[in-house]
Amino acid sequence: MEKAEFHGGTPTAKQEQEMRERLARLSADPRILHLLQEQAIPAAELRQYPTQFDRWLLDQRRCEGCRGLGQCKQKQRGMVPDLFYDGILQPVLHPCAYLTQQEQRTAHLAGYLVNDMDPRLATVSFDAIDVSHEDADYLQVLKAALNAVQKEEGLYLYGNMGTGKTYLAVCASNYYAKSGRRTAFVHWPTAVRRMRDALEDGEYRTELNRLTYAPFLVIDDIGAESVTAWNRDDILLPLLNARMEAGRMTWFTSNEDFKTLENHFSVTSRGIEERQKAMRILERIQKLAKPLEIIGSDRRRTL
Q: Comparing C-alpha atoms, which of 96, 99, 23, 89 is closest to residue 59?
């Protein structure tokens, strides 16, 4: 800690006057007085370490008028520098109210075994969906999705881009995660690339096992990946088989209906057509999930 003594010899009269004014200003500041009283800090600490108290005031001012983490002016987002006294005055960091609230709202994310969702969707929920401007078709879809959640049924959400398929699937996965159920949400094209990159050392099996045994799984954007014999026959088919046999709840989102999805899996990236293998994939998806089409214009929400 930096002491109040002057360096380089005896202080001049001007320096002593400046120190007296500094101590008087600090001693009269209501925030300093509250800090001293709250932590039972002896007044001698103020005289001994005035620079530390000045820095503390500066850090407190950075939080004045703040309305959220997006406006944070602290060096470490959401972390407020503070002073703590337990016989020794020392600097500490503690989360601000906004960061604490965010951590509380996102605590359920710890329950995700795999999480590829957009971080901005971490707190979305069915309850927060604004239906005031939605049409009757979407309300029926929302009702069906909520019904599937309550009955713990699988869904295959399909439709054009931007119709809200992923949003509803995230709402479902957040719902189960908040209830304490282990959950996985994978963007399938990303997961396929990730497992392919981990093929050489065998680490892909770790992720595949997590997807296999997660009580609730969302396979997002299936049909957008580049199909290979490996990711279709050695990854997806065993995954679907295991989940089907165990009766584990699985949701899918896709831009493809069942017919076009079958076509997608019929031809690999090498141009090899294998209709029978594609049908095996479709049969398992159909046993795991009921189709639910979402129609309408782009309703992507501003996050």
A: 96
